[in-house]
Write a structure and sequence with these properties.
The complex is a heterodimer of chains A (294) and B (279).
Chain A: H1 13-39, E1 42-44, E2 51-53, H2 57-64, H3 66-99, H4 104-112, H5 119-130, H6 136-143, H7 154-182, H8 186-194, H9 199-210, H10 212-229, H11 231-236, H12 249-259, H13 263-289
Antiparallel strand pairs in A: 1-2
Chain B: H1 6-33, H2 38-43, H3 53-61, H4 71-102, H5 108-117, H6 127-136, H7 143-147, H8 154-166, H9 169-177, H10 182-193, H11 195-210, H12 214-219, H13 228-236, H14 245-265, H15 267-277
Helix pairs in contact in B: 1-14, 3-14, 4-8, 4-11, 11-15, 13-14
Classes of the chains: A mainly alpha (294), B mainly alpha (279).
Chain lengths: 294, 279
């Protein structure tokens, strides 16, 4: 990794400068993470006085647990649905904003603010819209013969959390797609227009392929968001219910560990999630390194 | 725009208007709900504003149900937490980025990778051991416990490192020729140059701190330390029958207002901070 051409000669100062960051990282990140790894291989006696090495028991048990396996499948479905909806809408809106000239700032302002809405608040906002007693959407759905009750119906609960989670992420994807489109030279699309390519053709054959770095980056970020940041939405609304229907992995870690106090199993789940984030991050950074290839 | 296609322009505007409607609709209804009384909201979902806005806001502001601190105290806690996290993250990451870019020292790469690792360990995957650390340090139910574990930031460090790499080397050489030491150079040249970056990052980090939910939920058990996010979650008590929607929605709108206003009024800085800090 590079530094400046010339550097300051100093022995103690640089250590002093990185010390606060490193101390916090060691105490609150590295140490707890290593503890999670350690306790995922151990079983504590009921009084927490002694621990016993049990090898891979927690992991083996986890992967035989139908509840955990179901939660993996559910998380994958949830992640796929939210990512596709949020990225699709973000892309369409970005393409539209990129076409208008005078009003783009105006539309952007109206579109970006949900980034600042917390997952908990997003969950409650949609809960109000969907609540079966007085919510507006169940009222409308009744005309179409749909009885909406996400407190009882598992599929409806899943649809509900997907909508709330995707809604919050649209603005983020929108902003990055707009930034990506603005960095594509206008001469390319102009040349294609002179050659007679229609706007849709120009989008699919020029803009969209050139956006692929942005798209890939957003894909990683969105998966990360769905896996971890949606905790607030689930916690504020369904609480993983009804009957486990929305109990995604990150909520299950919390539920098993903090509410169920099953430390070994919860640590094993934490370690699996950590491995997942590590793979995501490594993929992202390997890609970023050789990004511009045109 | 390359050519003039009125029909397509019309379609474009329709798509955008639809997008704005989708994005704004839940919040619109929440704001409408803010202006009605509980009785109206328990029988129907009005689409037009009523006249109870000031009553509801006044009620919520002084709202002090059992099990929850008064609303204004939670707002204060949230503000304080977001500000401490924001300032803390910026200070420690600008310092470590300075050390990594402008000095060569043994274990420099180790430091860099340790900071990088924090990217891979979100609070959600290490909740119990982190909680134990806080408990052992006696930091439960304190502003320190609430903020310090969230302060380490790889993204802010990377952003400052990126920015420092674009600062011309000649500036630093000239400063050294003139006899400025590392601290003077940092304070008088680098810090003023980083002003815009710091401001942009402030917005992103303030929002980050404001929306935290899981961590405050774990480390605070005393009412007077609760944050807004925990408060609205408890008020909503969403799985119960017949909630007081006017109170809940007023609280929700008030709780989301500060960061949303920051984004709307400082949009340019916000977009800069977001797009640059996550690259």
């Amino acid at each position: 990794m590079e530094t400046k051409r010339t550097i300051f000669p100093s022995k103690g100062l640089p250590y002093l400068l990185v010390a606060p960051q490193l101390i916090i990282t060691l105490i609150f990140f590295i140490w707890p993470a290593s503890q999670a790894v350690k306790s995922s291989f151990e079983r504590a006696d009921p009084f927490g006085l002694s621990t016993q090495f049990v090898g891979l028991t927690h992991y083996l048990r986890l992967f035989q647990d139908p509840l955990y396996l179901a939660s993996i499948g559910r998380t994958a479905l949830f992640a796929a649905a939210v990512t596709i909806i949020a990225m699709g809408l973000g892309l369409i809106l970005a393409a539209a904003v990129n076409r208008v000239v005078r009003t783009s700032q105006f539309y952007t302002t109206l579109m970006v603010w949900p980034y600042a809405v917390s997952p908990v608040v997003a969950g409650i906002l949609w809960w109000f819209l969907f609540n079966s007693a007085t919510g507006l959407l169940p009222f409308v759905l009744k005309y179409f013969g749909v009885v909406w009750n996400h407190n009882l119906n598992a599929n409806q609960a899943m649809i509900f959390v997907v909508i709330a989670a995707a809604w919050k992420q649209i603005s983020y994807n929108f902003l990055f797609f707009v930034a990506g489109m603005q960095s594509i030279p206008a001469s390319l699309t102009e040349a294609a227009a002179i050659d007679g390519a229609s706007p849709f053709k120009r989008f699919w054959t020029i803009v969209f392929p050139l956006l692929s770095p942005t798209t890939f980056f957003l894909f990683i970020v969105n998966v990360n968001y769905v896996m971890f940041d949606t905790f607030g939405i689930i916690a504020a609304t369904t609480g993983g219910g009804p009957n486990q229907a929305t109990n995604i992995l990150v909520y299950k870690v919390y539920q098993d560990g903090f509410i169920g106090l099953n430390l070994g199993a919860s640590s094993a789940q934490s370690v699996i999630l950590m491995l997942f984030v590590i793979i995501l991050t490594v993929v992202q950074f390997r890609f970023v390194e050789r990004r511009v290839q045109y | 725009m390359v050519e003039n296609r009125p029909l397509l322009s019309l379609l474009t505007h329709l798509v955008l208007i639809l997008g704005v409607v989708i994005v704004a609709f839940p919040v619109y209804l929440a704001i409408i709900a803010m202006t009605h009384d509980a009785a109206t909201l328990n029988v129907s979902a009005p689409l037009l504003p009523g006249g109870e806005l000031f009553n509801n806001v006044a009620t919520v502001w002084n709202f002090d149900p059992p099990g929850l601190p008064p609303f204004w105290l939670m707002a204060w806690n949230s503000t304080l937490m977001a500000l401490i996290i924001m300032v803390g993250k910026i200070v420690i990451s600008i310092l470590s980025a300075y050390a990594i870019v402008y000095f060569k020292f043994p274990f420099r790469m180790v430091a860099f990778w340790l900071i990088f690792l924090t990217l891979m360990l979100p609070v959600e995957v290490r909740i119990i051991p982190t909680y134990e650390v806080i408990a052992n340090l006696g930091m439960l139910n304190s502003y320190w416990g609430l903020t310090v574990p969230l302060i380490a930031s790889a993204t802010a460090t990377f952003l400052f490192r990126q920015f420092f790499m674009t600062v011309p080397d000649e500036l630093m050489e000239a400063a050294r020729v003139d006899g400025a030491g590392p601290i003077k150079f940092f304070r008088d040249i680098l810090l003023p140059l980083s002003r815009t970056n710091i401001a942009a990052l402030c917005i992103i980090l303030f929002i980050y701190g404001w929306v935290q939910y899981l961590w405050p939920l774990l480390v605070t058990t005393k009412e007077d330390q609760f944050t807004l996010m925990m408060g609205v979650r408890q008020m909503a008590g969403v799985r119960e029958v017949e909630p007081m929607w006017n109170i809940i929605m007023t609280a929700v709108v008030l709780a989301m207002l500060p960061p949303v206003l920051v984004v709307i009024f400082m949009q340019r800085l916000f977009v800069k901070g977001l797009v640059e800090s996550e690259k």
